[in-house]
Amino acid sequence: MIEAVGLTKRYGDRVAVDRLSFTVRPGQVTGFLGPNGAGKSTTMRMIVGLDTPTAGRVTVNGRPFAALDNPMRELGALLDAKAIHGGRSAYHHLLCLAQSNNLPKRRVDEVLEKVGLTQVARKRSKGFSLGMGQRLGIAAALLGDPRILMFDEPVNGLDPEGILWIRNLMKALAAEGRTVLVSSHLMSEMEHTADHLLVIGRGRMIADCTVREFIERNSALALRVRSSSPSELAAVVARAGGKTAPASDGALLVTELPAERIGDLAFEHGIRLYELSPLQASLEQAFMELTRDSVEYQAAPLRESS
Ligand SMILES: Nc1ncnc2c1ncn2[C@@H]1O[C@H](COP(=O)(O)OP(=O)(O)OP(=O)(O)O)[C@@H](O)[C@H]1O
């Protein structure tokens, strides 16, 4: 379990992390989401003691990370996959880590196998592709067989196969009862991976809820309605306080009225319904809606050239 209370980090005048309080629980993947510069990496660095909070505190299994007896056995982290000595082989890199942290040598082969690097383990990591580097970083995080795992943007720059592999790995680790915290600015990715979400913008917590709750709370739920008389139904719905928009195939998209009410109205006016189905906004839409005001650098709207 990771627990933060009033966690704050200032760099001069700039507040990078602003009074964050949250709990990351075992047995699920917690997605840590926010636009660029929201404070995700700074928060993660504070969790593992690489940055000191200006105020507040964060603990790992009830203690500050620096006070843990065997930190790598409790929390494994992938923070910057490039922070590896390029002249060393993957095997050597992991072996050094294992030896300096009192971990059994056999773990090196186990984690190499787990991340699929056994074949290239003796080659210098300098020649590794981005995906291989990510796998090596993940192997290092898994080395101490920790109950808590933390990954900062692990899918950045990976190909679809690599993304799928990481997604399945996170889920498998959570299914084993481990605590998994993973940061991303790719909402579509989290939609398929995370159970719980912590969403931050400009260092502040915007949402702390399940993926489902996040979508429900932050997206206007529209209903798709196909009927025997769309124009008549649109008029009836408008009179009852609903809003309608035509869909390209002749259906109506209705908001601000529940499905039951639309069904009743159609029945009362003798309009036959062929379809009445909820249209759920994607997590991407909900996230952009929510963080619109907290994006650090916003592109100017594109102007048409005259
Ligand atoms: N060492 C530092 N000195 C000054 N400002 C910093 C430092 N580290 C981070 N910041 C600032 O703090 C804010 C949060 O940065 P952080 O890297 O934690 O965000 P992030 O959510 O991880 O973003 P990204 O997805 O772009 O990595 C940014 O405005 C950043 O410029």
Q: What would you note in describing this structure?
A:
Residues 2-227 form the ABC transporter domain. Keywords: ATP-binding, Nucleotide-binding, Transport. The chain has 306 residues and is an alpha/beta fold. It has eleven helices and 13 strands. It has helices spanning 40-47, 71-74, 90-100, 106-115, 130-142, 160-175, 187-193, 211-218, 230-239, 259-268, 283-291, and strands at residues 2-11, 14-24, 28-33, 55-60, 75-78, 148-152, 179-184, 196-201, 204-210, 222-227, 243-246, 252-255, 273-279. The strands form three sheets. Strands 5-6-7-3-8-9 form a six-stranded mixed sheet, sandwiched between helices. Strands 11-12-10-13 form a four-stranded antiparallel sheet, with helices on one face. Strand 8 (196-201) and strand 9 form a beta hairpin. The structure holds adenosine-5'-triphosphate. Adenosine-5'-triphosphate is lined by residues 11, 14, 16, 34, 36-42, 185. Adenosine-5'-triphosphate binds at residues 11, 14, 16, 34, 36-42, 185.
Strand arrangement, largest sheet?
A: 5-6-7-3-8-9
Shape: elongated
Bound molecules: adenosine-5'-triphosphate
Instruction: Supply the number of helical segments.
Output: 11
Low-pLDDT parts are 301-306
Distance between the termini: 57 Å
| β-sheet strand percentage | 25-35%
Largest sheet: 6 strands, mixed
| Radius of gyration computed on alpha carbons | 24 Å
Tell me the CATH topology of the largest domain.
Answer: Rossmann fold
Per CATH, the superfamily of the largest domain is P-loop containing nucleotide triphosphate hydrolases
CATH A-level architecture of the largest domain: 3-Layer(aba) Sandwich
Percent range of helical residues: 25-40%
CATH class of the largest domain: Alpha Beta
* SSE succession: EEEHEHEHHHEHEHEEHEHEEHEH
